[in-house]
Structure formats: structure tokens, C-alpha cells
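User: Some background: our group keeps a shared notebook of sequences we're curious about, and every so often someone picks one and asks for a predicted structure to add to the entry. Today it's my turn. The entry only has the sequence so far, pasted here. Could you supply the structure so I can complete it?
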Amino acid sequence: MTTTMTANRPDYEVIIIGAGFGGMGMAIQLDKAGLSDFTVIEKDGDVGGTWLINDYPGCACDVPSHMYSFSFEPNPDWSREFASQPEILAYLRRCADKYRIRPRIQFHTQVVGVVYDEAACLWNVRLARTDATARFAAEKGLRPGDPLPALAADLPETRTVRARVVVSAMGGLSTPAYPRLPGLERFQGRAFHSQRWDHGYDLRGKRVAVIGTGASAIQFVPQIQPTVAHLDVYQRTPPWVLPKADRAIPSLLRRAYRALPLARQARRLSIYTMLEGRAVALALEPRLVRVAEAYARLSMRRQVADPVLRAKLTPRYSLGCKRVLLTNDWFPAVTQPNVEVVTTGIAEVRERSIVDVEGVERPADAIVFGTGFRIADAFPRGAVVGRGGVDLAERWASAPEAYKGTSVAGFPNLFLLVGPNVGLGHNSLVYMIESQIRYVVDALRTMREGNLAEVEVERRAQDEFNADLQRRSRRTVWTDGGCNSYYLDPKTGRNIAIWPGFTFHFRWITRAFDVGSYRTRPMAEVAVQAGRDTAAERVASL
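Assistant: Of course. Here's the predicted structure to add to the notebook entry:
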């Protein structure tokens, strides 16, 4: 029996995928709870997640700094009300060092597939060096960031480790989305995604085409506009833009935050309350967004004198239906003489130009894609295979859904951070992540104290939770605002991304692990079955 249990013992009790806010927070809290048999798998060479790989010019957060940080690790020294990418990355690096998480991280390592072993109640996690996956992707003609699992059977230099529990903290902003443009492969200039900014290419004096006007583009366009010869901004749908209340935080105030923790806590609470108030208009009474729309139009009118350009930049859907963008320099940038906002679609890309659907050809030395991320493809086919060989991508083919955004029926001992419907349109995602972390830590504590080998959410509980969630989503601006966004599943129109309500409600329902909503399997039952299997193997070998 001892030999059998040793054979079924995992390499790690918990494997965490990703070392961004979710993965770092999960690792720190597991260690605090005494659940220290874990490792973190990180495909890049440092912590930070999206704040490591997104380093384009002007990259910054659109949530106030004192709310965009761990509650257990406040930072009194934020230099601005809205922190920039380098400052957020430095904060996460300090967290990794302070809580001694770095030695627990396997850097430059990529998860290329996880498969559940039902008999042992363990996950087989297939790993590969990131440089090996990059070479493999190049040989297969894949773009950087394209999913590997569909082809990973041929991937060389892999190894498999076993874990009782897998926590996915990959986040939604990790896989860049590229548009399918006819002729793009023959473009002879430089082309790159904002997430993979080519810092070695000098844009000064170049004719640059920017595809997309989302959250990344409105930050980097004003940074590159003054130095390029000409800038064509290809816009499919104009975003709602509001002024950004950003300013430097005076050193005297930072000293007060260091000396007086209550003052810092009061500032965080005031920000939280202000942001949470936005949910009233977005989720409960969408007609209230008209006030914000009037303010946004007034702000645009003050900055954009040309009525033709103003018409191009004016959205025709409700504010909040897509992500609302905060900036003070987008409108001043796109009104400059060397910028043209192009609203006609792209017909084709040629060797040194882009041709729109009206036949107008515009020269281009470089193309920068500000086209966002493949949020719906976080788990491509073959990446996660659960009970009975069911592929998570196939289970989510109709629409992604989970129980409390964290557990999926048919996938025991798997927990998702920032899973379906955990995203926000009004407050800090770090708050939601910490809520999920608390829930998962309590789940693992429940497994340890109850000597449970397996926990799997009941399908009934998941269905009831999502039926209620979709019911609450119906009258919100995200589903009834008159736009198409990544918040909604393109096939069903269901809300798959946004939490349709107050964040304190999510914190309440995840305050403790509700084991009664899960099917459990005791460790003793697995041991008995393992003993039977071993005996059968011995008989068969006689």
C-alpha cells in the first residue's frame, strides 16, 4: 500500500499557472495559510504578467493606484494617481522579493497541456521550455502568442509533472489578437502588436498605420504621434473617452501615507466607494449613463473643433457597452496635421501600403496592431482535458461559463482566477482576484482538513449560478447597450466576461468555500482503488 500511495503522490499539491497579480497573490496567500507545497509556472523570465509583457510607450493603468494593489501589501509611495507600467511592475517585483516567491517560480517554462487522471485524482501537467515552444511555433508558421496545444503532440523537449490541484492565473491579456487582413503576409515593412512592442525599431520619420483604437492604442498613439512623419489610425468603432483625473501625488502626501496607515486606508476606501458607485448606472439603471455621455461629448467638443472628425470619433452606442477609456491626450493627438482617422474598412495590405474598401491607398512603413487580446481563446483546444476526456474548449464551445467564475463542472481540482464573468467595467480587478484567492485557499484548506482527494462543482449548482447571472445581465449596459464587444459571446450574445453587479456582492459569495455545492471524493477511497489496481496488475503479471 505504501508503494502504491507513493506512486500516486503528486510532485506538487498545487501548480499555479502564471506570475501576474493572480498567480503572485495566490502563491503568497497559500504560503501564509501553510499550504506551501506548490510551484508557479511562468512562461516569461520575470514576474508581472500583463505588466511585464505590455511595455509599449505610454502604458499605464486606468484604475487609481491605491485601489490597483493588493490589500495586504499597500504601497504608500505611488507617484501618480494612475500608475504607469514600470511602476506597477516594480511593485509586483517587490512583492515577489518580500514574500520570497521567486524561488518557487519556474521561469521560462510554458504549460502546453493539462490532463486529468481520474483514477489518481491528479492533473498531469505537460511543460516545455519557452524557447523550445517559440522555435516550434516558428517552424509551424504560428504568430507569437498563438496557442500551441493543438499541435503540441509533436512538441519536443517536454516533461510532465503531477499536481493534486491546478490554479490557472493566466489572465485575459496574455494572448494578442491579430486581425485577418488580406495580403498582410507580403507586407515588407515592420509589423508588430502593441503587446510585443518592437523597441528596436525607430518609428521617427516613418509613415505608421495603427490598426485599432482600443485601450492600448489610445495610450501609445499620443506617444508616437509627435515623432512620426504621418500616422493613419484605422478605427472600426469609436470608443467612449472620458478625461483621466491623473496627477502626481505630492511627496508630503506620500510621507503621510507611510506614517499614517489609517490615512492610506481611508484613501483606498474612498476610491473603492467612488468606483463602486458606477455600477448603479452600468448594471442597475443604464439610463443614468446619459449624464456621463453628455460630459464625454462636451469634453470632445472642447478638444476637437472639426465637426467631421468629431462625428468619426463619436460612438453610437451606450457608454459602458464597450470599455470606457480614460485619457487626456487622445483627442489632442488625433487632431494634429500628421494624423488621419480612417473609418473605412481595410481591403488589403500591399508591400508598402494599405488599401481601404473605397480603393484609397495609403503608404505605410510600419503597422502597429492595437487590436487587443484573444480573451475567448484563453484555453484553446487540447489545453485542458478533464473528466472523461472532455476538452474545456469543447465544453465552452457554446459559451464559457463557470461557477462563481472559479470552478467548472467536469474539471475536478481546477480553479480559475479571472475566469468567466469575473471581469469588471467599473472597479479594480485586483479586488475580484483577491476574492477568488480567498475562496480557493479555503477550498484547499477544506480538502486538507477533510482528507479529500477531489472536489468538483455540481453541474446543477453551476447551471443555477449562471442562469441567475444571465438574468441579472439582461438590463445592464454591457448586454443592452447597442454594441458588439468582447464582453459578449459572439454566437449566443451572452455575457461571458463581466460581473453584472457590485463587487462587494462577489466578495460576499466567495467569502468561504461552499463544499455543499461540490461533489467530493475522500483520499481513502482513492487509496483503496489504487490498491485494487495494483493487486490486479500483480495477478495479470503471473
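Suggested note for the entry: The chain has 18 helices and 20 strands. The longest strand covers residues 158-168.
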